[in-house]
C-alpha cells in the first residue's frame, strides 16, 4: 500500500511541503510544494491539522525508575546522595512484575510524546531479575517502539569500594554470559530492525576495568554499540582520580572505549583536550538536559562536542531524576539550557530537534531512522496546534519547542499508526496507570 501523508501545516524536511509517500514502512517520496506524487497512491491521510517531525529517538533512560518518581527520600539531592538514597529501595522492591510495568509505562509515555525509538540503560540486577532484557524486548514489541536493549551491568559493590549495594550487582562471568545470550537472541543489524542490543557497564564507580575491556571484545565480536555514564558529575572526576589516578576520559581510553562504537550518557565535565579526543574518536554523547538540571550536575558542551566530531543525541534519562519520560519536553529543555550556556542566536530549535533525531540515531549506530528522507523508515510524530498554548504562533515548527508541545496527536512507526487521537493503540492507559500506581505505592511503603 502506498499512502500519501498529505498537506501538513509544516514538516521538518526539505522539499516535502505537500507531505510524504510511505510504502512498506519506508518513506519512498517527498512531495514538494505544488507537486503531486509521481506514482499513484492507494490512499491518503489528511495531515492538514498536523505539524510533522521525524520520530524522536531517546538515547538514555532507566525505565524501572518510573516506580520512584519524586520519591521523598531522593528529592533535592545531587547524584551520589540521590543514588545512595534510592539504591536500597530499588534493591528491595524491583521484581520482574513491577519491572515489566515500569518498562511498559515508560515506553508508552515516550511514545505518546512522539518518541519512536528508545534505548534503556538497565543495570540493576537483584536476584530474580535475570530476565530483564527479555521483559523489555517483549514490552517494546507490545508497545510498538523500536528499542536498543542496552544490557547494563554492575560488578563493583559497596564491599569492593563501589557505590551500589551488594544485592544488585552480578559477577563478571554471569554478566558476560547473559550479554552473549541477549546479543545472540535479539541483536538485529538489518534495516528497520525493531530490536538491537548494546552493552553498557554502568559507570566507573560501579564496574571493574576488566568488565569494561571484556565488553569491548564482545561488542567487536557481535558488531554492537557500547554505552556508559561518563563525565556526569565532579564527584565522578574525584572518584576516578582517587581510584584510577586519572580523569574519566583517560580511564575510558585505557579500557579501549575511545572509538565510534561508543556513546556516553551526560558528558558534562570534559575539558578542551578531552572534547577534542572524544570528537576525533567519533564517540557520541547523549545530552540529558532535564536530569542534569534536576540533579544540578552541570551543562553539556554540546556545540564544542559536535564541532569536534562527536554525534550529540538526546535522552530523558532516568524517570527518577527527570521524573517523566517525555522526550518532546526534553527538546525544549535542551534549547533553553543551551541558550543559557551559549547564547540565543547560535542555538536554535533546529539544533534541539537535530539532537533528538539524527544525532540520537547516530549515537545508536542507525542510519535508517532519525530523519524524514527517502529511504528512511516511516517513523514520524504528528502534533496539532489546537491548544491555547499555540494560539498566535507564527512558525509551526518552532512553536512545538517554544510553546511547549508535550503530546503527539499521532505517531507512526514503520508506516503503522501507534498513536491515534493522542492515545496509544493497543494499550489501556487507564489500566496501566492503575497497575503501575499500585506497584509504585509499595516502593513508598517500604521506607
TrEMBL record:
Pfam families per record: Amidohydro_1
Domain Amidohydrolase-related: 51-401
Database matches in InterPro entries: Amidohydro-rel, Metal-dep_hydrolase_composite, Metal_Hydrolase, MTA/SAH_deaminase
GO molecular-function term, one example from the UniProt record: deaminase activity
Source organism, top-level taxon: Bacteria
Metal-binding among keywords: yes
Keywords on record: Hydrolase, Metal-binding, Zinc
Family affiliation: Belongs to the metallo-dependent hydrolases superfamily. ATZ/TRZ family.
Name of the featured protein: Putative hydroxydechloroatrazine ethylaminohydrolase (AtzB) (Hydroxyatrazine hydrolase)
Amino acid at each position: 500500500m502506498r499512502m500519501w501523508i498529505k498537506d501538513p501545516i509544516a514538516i521538518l524536511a526539505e522539499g516535502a511541503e505537500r507531505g510524504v509517500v510511505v510504502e512498506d514502512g519506508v518513506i519512498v517520496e517527498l512531495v514538494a510544494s505544488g507537486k503531486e506524487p509521481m506514482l499513484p497512491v492507494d490512499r491518503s491521510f489528511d495531515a492538514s491539522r498536523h505539524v510533522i517531525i521525524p520520530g524522536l529517538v531517546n538515547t538514555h533512560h532507566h525505565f524501572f525508575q518510573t516506580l520512584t518518581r519524586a520519591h521523598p527520600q531522593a528529592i533535592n539531592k545531587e547524584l551520589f546522595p540521590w543514588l545512595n538514597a534510592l539504591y536500597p529501595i530499588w534493591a528491595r522492591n524491583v521484581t520482574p512484575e513491577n519491572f515489566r510495568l515500569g518498562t511498559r509505562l515508560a515506553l508508552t509515555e515516550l511514545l505518546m510524546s512522539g518518541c519512536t525509538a528508545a534505548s534503556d540503560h538497565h543495570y540493576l540486577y537483584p536476584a530474580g531479575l535475570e530476565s530483564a532484557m527479555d521483559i523489555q524486548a517483549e514490552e517494546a514489541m507490545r508497545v510498538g517502539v523500536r528499542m536498543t536493549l542496552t544490557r547494563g551491568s554492575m560488578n563493583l559493590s559497596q564491599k569492593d569500594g563501589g557505590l551500589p549495594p551488594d544485592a544488585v550487582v552480578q559477577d563478571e562471568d554471569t554478566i558476560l554470559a547473559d550479554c552473549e545470550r541477549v546479543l545472540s537472541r535479539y541483536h538485529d543489524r538489518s534495516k528497520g530492525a525493531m530490536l538491537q542490543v548494546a552493552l553498557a557497564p554502568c559507570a566507573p564507580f560501579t564496574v571493574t576495568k576488566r568488565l569494561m575491556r571484556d565488553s569491548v571484545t564482545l561488542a567487536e565480536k557481535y558488531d554492537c554499540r557500547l554505552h556508559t555514564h561518563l563525565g556526569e558529575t565532579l564527584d565522578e572526576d574525584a572518584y576516578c582520580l582517587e581510584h584510577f589516578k586519572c580523569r574519566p576520559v583517560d580511564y575510558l581510553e585505557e579500557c579501549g572505549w575511545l572509538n565510534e562504537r561508543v556513546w556516553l550518557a551526560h558528558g558534562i565535565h570534559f575539558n578542551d583536550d578531552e572534547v577534542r579526543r572524544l570528537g576525533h574518536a567519533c564517540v557520541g554523547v547523549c545530552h540529558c538536559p532535564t536530569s542534569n538540571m534536576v540533579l544540578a550536575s552541570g551543562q553539556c558542551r554540546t556545540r564544542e562536542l559536535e564541532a569536534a566530531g562527536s554525534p550529540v543525541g538526546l535522552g530523558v534519562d532516568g524517570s527518577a531524576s527527570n521524573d517523566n519520560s517525555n522526550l518532546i519536553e526534553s527538546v525544549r529543555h535542551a534549547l533553553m539550557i543551551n541558550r543559557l550556556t551559549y547564547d540565543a542566536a547560535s542555538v536554535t530549535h533546529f539544533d534541539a530537534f537535530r539532537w533528538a533525531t539524527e544525532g540520537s540515531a547516530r549515537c545508536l549506530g542507525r542510519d535508517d531512522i532519525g530523519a524524514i528522507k527517502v529511504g528512511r523508515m516511516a517513523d514520524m510524530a504528528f502534533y496539532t496546534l489546537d491548544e491555547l498554548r499555540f494560539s498566535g504562533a507564527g512558525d509551526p515548527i518552532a512553536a512545538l519547542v517554544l510553546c511547549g508541545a508535550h503530546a503527539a496527536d499521532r505517531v507512526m512507526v514503520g508506516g503503522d499508526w501507534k498513536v491515534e487521537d493522542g492515545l496509544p493503540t493497543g494499550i489501556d492507559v487507564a489500566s496501566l496507570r492503575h497497575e503501575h500506581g499500585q506497584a509504585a505505592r509499595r516502593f513508598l511503603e517500604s521506607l
